[in-house]
Amino acid sequence: MRLHLLLLLFFCSRLGFCEEPDFLIKKCLSNRYTHQSCSKVFCQPWEKCVEGACMCKLPYLCPKSGSSVCSTSHRLFRNYCQLKTYECLHPETKFLINGTCEKKETFAVSLESGELPSEGIVRVKLVNGDEQAYLCNSKWSITEANVVCRHLGHAQGALHHRYANDSAIRMKAPHCLDVTCRGLESSLSECAFSKRADTHDETPAGVTCYLREVEPPSPDSFECVNGKFVSRSKTCDGINDCGDQSDELCCRACRPGGFHCTSDVCIPEDHRCDGEMDCILGDDENNCKGEESSETQDQGVHRGEVRDQEPARALNDNMDNERRRIKSLIPQITCGMRRNISTRRKRILGGKAAVKATRT
């Protein structure tokens, strides 16, 4: 079935005489699965699965190990997991920086040159940075754009990972920063920032955040569970365009670039054999002998990008590595009941267990 859909997609795109095949499973869509549906995906390490939904853990259920982190309210937490459990219950408190708190520390995201407050060129000020910086466009994607818009208060994420006029605007600074997100972060400060030596040919990254009243849905749109509309051609490709992952959780097959889990979930192809189980049945980590793990690759190389000749310099701690570490500390649960094989013993009241006599 999967091969049939992919072949049909290939011929339709090349010849243009037929309708694009539908990768989505309609019956499954009625369940309205999201990244919070633990019958489809793993909960975050600071959440627990309760009757098919990911719910907030209490802070004391987090592992005790890990370095301290500071929140936007300048409250110090024992570790990243403890902060995220607190944020789960108090969404206004978000991650700021790994380490102790300093009163003057701030992290800021802004958009400039846009006609609306919800669009423009992205600028950031890192906690340990002296001034604002642009983000590089070459490694910019909808994954990072969704996090930027969510950080700025747009719960449905980004409409486009570009701004209509961003290609015509040249940077006003000699350098820009690369940013890598997983896609479910609530704050851009949780993503990994790095700086390359030579970025003078770069254009700045732009974004248009999703506003339903401004951008009416087109006839071929897919409605995400969070109410956002995305192109149907962007479903089942392994990329979380919706921002709540609902475009990737009911797929009979995946488009090129996606890996199909047995649970009918599409994940990015580069998440396969990366040392972390993403498919709920673990099929993305099967038959990985001889394949390079992403843990051995350089930071910042993702989604099939070519390695830079000059290695990038990390500007902050990669909190996705900390998320993976916390996840590895969670006890593994084996489903089902242990088989109990019992033997019947007969004994006289007050006697001892009989033993087989031996010949002398």
Automatic annotation (TrEMBL):
Q: Where in the cell is it found?
A: Endomembrane system; Membrane; Secreted
Report membrane topology: Single-pass membrane protein
Q: Name the SUPFAM superfamilies for this protein.
A: Kazal-type serine protease inhibitors, LDL receptor-like module, SRCR-like
Between which residues do disulfide bridges form?
Answer: C181-C191, C224-C242, C236-C251, C254-C266, C261-C279, C273-C288
The UniProt keywords, alphabetically, are: Disulfide bond, Glycoprotein, Hydrolase, Immunity, Membrane, Protease, Repeat, Secreted, Serine protease, Signal, Transmembrane, Transmembrane helix
**Domain SRCR residue range list:** 109-210
Give the record's GO CC terms: endomembrane system; extracellular region; membrane
Q: Which InterPro entries match?
A: CFAI_FIMAC_N, CFAI_KAZAL, FacI_MAC, Kazal_dom, Kazal_dom_sf, LDL_receptor-like_sf, LDLR, LDLR_class-A_CS
**Pfam families the record matches:** CFAI_FIMAC_N, Kazal_CFAI, Ldl_recept_a, SRCR
Extent of Basic and acidic residues compositional bias: 300-311
Enumerate the residue ranges of region (Disordered). Answer: 290-323
Q: Which residues form the Kazal-like domain?
A: 55-103
Q: Where is the signal peptide?
A: 1-18
Quote one Gene Ontology molecular function term: serine-type peptidase activity
Q: Does the entry feature the keyword Membrane, yes or no?
A: yes
Gene3D superfamilies (UniProt xref): 3.30.60.30, Low-density Lipoprotein Receptor, SRCR-like domain
Tell me the Gene Ontology biological-process terms attached to this UniProt entry.
Answer: immune system process; proteolysis; vesicle-mediated transport
- Fetch the PANTHER family from UniProt: LOW-DENSITY LIPOPROTEIN RECEPTOR-RELATED
What name is this protein filed under? Complement factor I
Originating organism: Ornithorhynchus anatinus (Duckbill platypus)
